Amino acid sequence: MMRPNPLLFLAGGVLAAGLALSTTRGVAAQDPGPPPAPAPVDNHALVVRIQDLEQKVATLQAWVDGQRAQAKLTTAALGEAEAAGFTAGPNFRSREVLIAAWRAAAEAAQAGAAPAPAAPAKGRGSRPDNGR
After folding, report:
1. Domain ranges for the chain
2. For residue range 92-102, what is the model confidence (pLDDT) as tens digits?
């Protein structure tokens, strides 16, 4: 009786593994088809969302404008306090430190703010379609 050849078993195993891998690759590489159609756009919801965001921007711009105005007032008040002698007397250095910190905060609040937007024109011609 003949003994089985181990190389024959090894070659058969490699062939079977190769076939199994090529079959699973072929399944994975199949075209999934066209992508699903996008959901319909709700224009009314978009308009409402844009209006909401525009209101938030206007609110924030008003807040920034108020901060800028208060920072200018603070800067003026600090100069006036120094001129009136706030930093004179015992422990004057602590008051100089406070003045410098308050001035830096007021200047930073004014420096980073975007300029206030111009008010939209009123009347004919103010709309994008020129009033038609």
Report:
1. 63-114
2. 888 888 888 88
